[in-house]
């Protein structure tokens, strides 16, 4: 077992295998980070839209109450 391990280490196959695995994980992490920021931006836009709607509704309600 040790002989096989040292042979693989000598060839660099294990190192290459784990380097590839690590790069895949990093790439997935970057994708998740981008997705996270995208969703946060969408939520912020939705919050802004709701606040605008609320302000407009409040104006209309105030205007209506002043008329009557």
UniProtKB/TrEMBL annotation:
It comes from the Eukaryota. This is Uncharacterized protein. It comes from Brassica carinata (Ethiopian mustard).
């Amino acid at each position: 077992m040790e002989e096989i391990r040292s042979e693989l280490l000598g060839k660099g196959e294990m190192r290459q295998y784990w380097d590839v695995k690590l790069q895949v994980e990093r790439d997935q992490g970057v994708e998740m980070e981008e997705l996270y920021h995208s969703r946060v931006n969408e939520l912020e836009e939705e919050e802004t839209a709701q606040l605008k709607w609320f302000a407009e509704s409040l104006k209309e309600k105030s205007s209506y109450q002043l008329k009557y």
